[in-house]
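lol so apparently i was supposed to do this last week
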Amino acid sequence: MKKVTTSTLMQLKQKGEKIAALTAYDASFAKMFDEQLIDVILIGDSLGMVLKGDDDTLSVTVDDVAYHTACVRKGTSRAFVIADMPFMSYASKEQAYGNAAKLMASGASMVKVEGGEWLIETITGLVERGVPVCGHLGLTPQSVHVFGGFKVQGRENEQAKKIVDSAIKLENAGVQLLVLECIPSAVAKLISEALKIPVIGIGAGVSTDGQILVMHDMFGISANYMPKFSKNYLTDSNDMRSAVTAYINDVKANRFPGPEHSFE
Ligand code: KIV
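anyway here it is w/ 3-methyl-2-oxobutanoic acid bound
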Protein backbone atom coordinates (compact mmCIF):
# COMPACT_ATOMS: atom_id res chain seq x y z
CA MET A 1 0.00 0.00 0.00
CA LYS A 2 1.48 3.37 -1.04
CA LYS A 3 2.07 5.80 1.81
CA VAL A 4 0.16 9.08 1.76
CA THR A 5 2.57 12.03 1.47
CA THR A 6 2.27 15.78 0.97
CA SER A 7 2.42 15.07 -2.80
CA THR A 8 -0.48 12.61 -2.53
CA LEU A 9 -2.57 15.20 -0.69
CA MET A 10 -1.80 17.81 -3.34
CA GLN A 11 -2.74 15.32 -6.09
CA LEU A 12 -6.04 14.55 -4.35
CA LYS A 13 -6.87 18.27 -4.39
CA GLN A 14 -5.88 18.56 -8.06
CA LYS A 15 -8.06 15.55 -8.96
CA GLY A 16 -10.96 16.91 -6.92
CA GLU A 17 -10.96 13.86 -4.63
CA LYS A 18 -11.82 14.74 -1.05
CA ILE A 19 -9.36 14.07 1.78
CA ALA A 20 -10.72 12.16 4.79
CA ALA A 21 -9.02 12.80 8.12
CA LEU A 22 -9.58 11.81 11.75
CA THR A 23 -7.77 12.41 15.00
CA ALA A 24 -6.25 9.43 16.83
CA TYR A 25 -4.16 9.11 19.95
CA ASP A 26 -3.14 5.46 20.16
CA ALA A 27 -1.86 2.59 18.03
CA SER A 28 -5.06 0.50 18.02
CA PHE A 29 -7.37 3.20 16.67
CA ALA A 30 -4.65 4.46 14.31
CA LYS A 31 -4.34 0.91 12.89
CA MET A 32 -8.10 0.61 12.45
CA PHE A 33 -8.37 3.99 10.69
CA ASP A 34 -5.32 3.19 8.55
CA GLU A 35 -6.80 -0.16 7.49
CA GLN A 36 -10.05 1.57 6.50
CA LEU A 37 -7.91 3.87 4.27
CA ILE A 38 -8.17 7.16 6.11
CA ASP A 39 -5.88 9.67 4.35
CA VAL A 40 -4.68 11.71 7.33
CA ILE A 41 -4.39 11.05 11.07
CA LEU A 42 -3.93 14.04 13.39
CA ILE A 43 -2.65 13.68 16.93
CA GLY A 44 -4.68 16.71 18.01
CA ASP A 45 -4.23 18.67 21.19
CA SER A 46 -7.96 17.89 21.45
CA LEU A 47 -6.51 15.06 23.53
CA GLY A 48 -6.69 17.54 26.42
CA MET A 49 -10.48 17.46 26.14
CA VAL A 50 -11.27 13.92 24.95
CA LEU A 51 -8.56 11.97 26.82
CA LYS A 52 -7.82 14.14 29.86
CA GLY A 53 -11.36 15.51 30.27
CA ASP A 54 -10.32 19.17 30.41
CA ASP A 55 -12.59 22.01 29.24
CA ASP A 56 -10.00 23.21 26.73
CA THR A 57 -6.69 22.19 25.12
CA LEU A 58 -4.39 24.50 27.06
CA SER A 59 -2.85 22.03 29.52
CA VAL A 60 -1.51 19.74 26.78
CA THR A 61 2.29 19.57 26.64
CA VAL A 62 4.78 18.71 23.90
CA ASP A 63 5.62 15.54 25.83
CA ASP A 64 1.91 14.55 25.80
CA VAL A 65 1.69 14.99 22.02
CA ALA A 66 5.08 13.28 21.48
CA TYR A 67 3.94 10.25 23.52
CA HIS A 68 0.67 9.89 21.58
CA THR A 69 2.42 10.54 18.25
CA ALA A 70 4.81 7.65 18.90
CA CYS A 71 1.79 5.41 19.71
CA VAL A 72 -0.08 6.45 16.55
CA ARG A 73 3.00 6.06 14.36
CA LYS A 74 3.34 2.41 15.43
CA GLY A 75 -0.24 1.69 14.29
CA THR A 76 0.04 3.53 10.98
CA SER A 77 1.42 2.16 7.69
CA ARG A 78 -0.32 4.26 5.05
CA ALA A 79 -1.96 7.41 6.42
CA PHE A 80 -0.19 10.77 6.65
CA VAL A 81 0.54 11.58 10.33
CA ILE A 82 0.34 15.15 11.65
CA ALA A 83 1.11 16.22 15.24
CA ASP A 84 -0.32 19.32 16.90
CA MET A 85 2.07 21.85 18.42
CA PRO A 86 0.45 22.58 21.81
CA PHE A 87 -0.38 25.95 23.39
CA MET A 88 2.74 28.16 23.81
CA SER A 89 5.07 25.54 22.34
CA TYR A 90 5.74 27.81 19.32
CA ALA A 91 5.52 31.21 21.03
CA SER A 92 9.00 32.00 19.69
CA LYS A 93 10.79 30.68 16.59
CA GLU A 94 13.41 28.94 18.72
CA GLN A 95 10.76 27.19 20.81
CA ALA A 96 8.99 26.14 17.62
CA TYR A 97 12.15 24.62 16.11
CA GLY A 98 13.02 22.59 19.22
CA ASN A 99 9.48 21.38 19.86
CA ALA A 100 8.76 20.57 16.20
CA ALA A 101 11.99 18.52 16.16
CA LYS A 102 10.70 16.49 19.14
CA LEU A 103 7.37 15.77 17.41
CA MET A 104 9.00 14.83 14.12
CA ALA A 105 11.41 12.53 15.98
CA SER A 106 8.38 10.91 17.68
CA GLY A 107 6.92 9.96 14.30
CA ALA A 108 5.06 12.94 12.88
CA SER A 109 5.40 13.78 9.17
CA MET A 110 4.09 17.33 9.66
CA VAL A 111 3.28 19.67 12.55
CA LYS A 112 0.20 21.87 12.91
CA VAL A 113 0.20 25.40 14.34
CA GLU A 114 -2.74 27.68 15.13
CA GLY A 115 -2.72 31.28 13.98
CA GLY A 116 -2.18 33.77 11.19
CA GLU A 117 0.31 36.47 10.31
CA TRP A 118 2.31 36.38 13.54
CA LEU A 119 3.48 32.88 12.52
CA ILE A 120 4.87 33.72 9.08
CA GLU A 121 8.57 33.78 10.04
CA THR A 122 8.20 30.69 12.22
CA ILE A 123 6.55 28.75 9.39
CA THR A 124 9.18 29.79 6.83
CA GLY A 125 11.93 28.85 9.29
CA LEU A 126 10.40 25.44 10.01
CA VAL A 127 9.93 24.63 6.32
CA GLU A 128 13.50 25.77 5.51
CA ARG A 129 14.72 23.40 8.21
CA GLY A 130 12.78 20.44 6.77
CA VAL A 131 9.62 20.48 8.88
CA PRO A 132 6.38 20.43 6.86
CA VAL A 133 3.72 22.66 8.41
CA CYS A 134 -0.09 22.62 8.50
CA GLY A 135 -1.81 25.91 9.37
CA HIS A 136 -5.04 26.25 11.37
CA LEU A 137 -7.36 29.28 11.10
CA GLY A 138 -10.88 30.23 12.18
CA LEU A 139 -11.85 28.96 15.61
CA THR A 140 -8.35 28.15 16.85
CA PRO A 141 -9.04 26.41 20.20
CA GLN A 142 -5.78 27.56 21.83
CA SER A 143 -7.21 31.12 21.67
CA VAL A 144 -10.55 30.16 23.26
CA HIS A 145 -10.13 32.71 26.05
CA VAL A 146 -9.36 35.49 23.58
CA PHE A 147 -12.53 34.59 21.64
CA GLY A 148 -14.59 34.40 24.86
CA GLY A 149 -15.65 30.80 24.19
CA PHE A 150 -15.81 28.27 21.35
CA LYS A 151 -17.54 30.57 18.85
CA VAL A 152 -17.89 30.53 15.06
CA GLN A 153 -15.35 32.94 13.56
CA GLY A 154 -15.51 35.04 10.37
CA ARG A 155 -19.20 35.93 10.39
CA GLU A 156 -18.50 39.66 10.08
CA ASN A 157 -16.96 40.93 6.82
CA GLU A 158 -13.86 42.37 8.50
CA GLN A 159 -13.15 39.11 10.35
CA ALA A 160 -13.81 37.00 7.24
CA LYS A 161 -11.43 39.16 5.20
CA LYS A 162 -8.74 38.72 7.87
CA ILE A 163 -9.09 34.92 7.72
CA VAL A 164 -8.89 34.93 3.89
CA ASP A 165 -5.79 37.22 3.98
CA SER A 166 -4.13 35.03 6.62
CA ALA A 167 -4.80 31.88 4.58
CA ILE A 168 -3.07 33.40 1.54
CA LYS A 169 -0.13 34.58 3.68
CA LEU A 170 0.25 31.15 5.30
CA GLU A 171 0.33 29.49 1.89
CA ASN A 172 2.97 31.97 0.72
CA ALA A 173 4.99 31.28 3.88
CA GLY A 174 5.11 27.58 3.01
CA VAL A 175 2.29 25.68 4.76
CA GLN A 176 1.40 22.58 2.74
CA LEU A 177 -2.00 22.00 4.33
CA LEU A 178 -4.53 24.24 6.08
CA VAL A 179 -7.26 23.42 8.61
CA LEU A 180 -10.25 25.77 8.77
CA GLU A 181 -12.39 25.37 11.87
CA CYS A 182 -15.89 26.73 12.50
CA ILE A 183 -16.20 29.42 9.87
CA PRO A 184 -19.06 30.16 7.46
CA SER A 185 -19.17 27.72 4.53
CA ALA A 186 -18.96 30.55 1.97
CA VAL A 187 -15.70 31.85 3.47
CA ALA A 188 -14.21 28.33 3.53
CA LYS A 189 -15.23 27.80 -0.11
CA LEU A 190 -13.57 31.04 -1.16
CA ILE A 191 -10.31 30.07 0.61
CA SER A 192 -10.32 26.50 -0.77
CA GLU A 193 -10.72 27.84 -4.29
CA ALA A 194 -8.08 30.55 -3.83
CA LEU A 195 -5.33 28.28 -2.44
CA LYS A 196 -3.28 25.69 -4.32
CA ILE A 197 -2.67 23.66 -1.14
CA PRO A 198 -5.39 21.33 0.24
CA VAL A 199 -7.76 22.84 2.79
CA ILE A 200 -9.32 20.55 5.41
CA GLY A 201 -12.48 21.71 7.13
CA ILE A 202 -14.14 21.06 10.47
CA GLY A 203 -17.37 23.01 10.79
CA ALA A 204 -16.42 24.81 7.56
CA GLY A 205 -18.97 23.38 5.13
CA VAL A 206 -18.77 20.87 2.32
CA SER A 207 -16.65 22.86 -0.16
CA THR A 208 -13.23 22.40 1.45
CA ASP A 209 -10.82 19.85 -0.05
CA GLY A 210 -11.34 17.47 2.86
CA GLN A 211 -12.84 17.00 6.30
CA ILE A 212 -11.51 16.16 9.73
CA LEU A 213 -13.36 15.10 12.89
CA VAL A 214 -12.21 14.34 16.41
CA MET A 215 -12.56 10.54 16.58
CA HIS A 216 -14.53 10.63 19.84
CA ASP A 217 -17.10 12.95 18.22
CA MET A 218 -17.35 10.67 15.15
CA PHE A 219 -18.06 7.71 17.47
CA GLY A 220 -20.42 9.83 19.62
CA ILE A 221 -18.48 9.13 22.82
CA SER A 222 -17.03 12.56 23.69
CA ALA A 223 -16.96 13.25 27.40
CA ASN A 224 -18.36 16.77 27.24
CA TYR A 225 -20.78 17.54 24.39
CA MET A 226 -21.36 16.85 20.69
CA PRO A 227 -20.49 19.86 18.51
CA LYS A 228 -23.05 20.85 15.85
CA PHE A 229 -20.46 20.27 13.10
CA SER A 230 -19.91 16.63 14.04
CA LYS A 231 -21.87 13.46 13.34
CA ASN A 232 -22.15 10.23 15.30
CA TYR A 233 -21.37 7.53 12.72
CA LEU A 234 -21.89 4.66 15.17
CA THR A 235 -25.64 5.30 15.28
CA ASP A 236 -26.21 3.71 11.88
CA SER A 237 -23.27 1.26 11.92
CA ASN A 238 -22.91 -2.15 13.51
CA ASP A 239 -19.33 -1.64 14.64
CA MET A 240 -16.52 0.90 14.78
CA ARG A 241 -14.89 -0.21 11.52
CA SER A 242 -18.14 0.27 9.56
CA ALA A 243 -18.59 3.67 11.21
CA VAL A 244 -15.13 4.76 10.02
CA THR A 245 -15.82 3.47 6.50
CA ALA A 246 -19.19 5.27 6.44
CA TYR A 247 -17.46 8.52 7.50
CA ILE A 248 -14.74 8.16 4.83
CA ASN A 249 -17.32 7.31 2.13
CA ASP A 250 -19.51 10.27 3.13
CA VAL A 251 -16.53 12.67 2.97
CA LYS A 252 -15.37 11.32 -0.41
CA ALA A 253 -18.92 11.55 -1.83
CA ASN A 254 -19.58 15.07 -0.47
CA ARG A 255 -22.39 13.71 1.76
CA PHE A 256 -20.69 15.01 4.93
CA PRO A 257 -20.97 17.67 6.23
CA GLY A 258 -24.60 18.51 5.46
CA PRO A 259 -26.10 21.95 5.98
CA GLU A 260 -27.10 20.86 9.50
CA HIS A 261 -23.37 20.49 10.37
CA SER A 262 -22.34 23.80 8.78
CA PHE A 263 -22.45 27.52 9.58
CA GLU A 264 -23.62 30.55 7.57
O1 KIV B 1 -6.84 19.23 18.15
C1 KIV B 1 -7.53 18.79 17.22
O2 KIV B 1 -8.06 17.68 17.25
C2 KIV B 1 -7.70 19.64 16.05
C3 KIV B 1 -8.77 19.28 15.07
C4 KIV B 1 -10.08 19.61 15.64
C5 KIV B 1 -8.57 19.92 13.76
O3 KIV B 1 -7.03 20.63 15.92
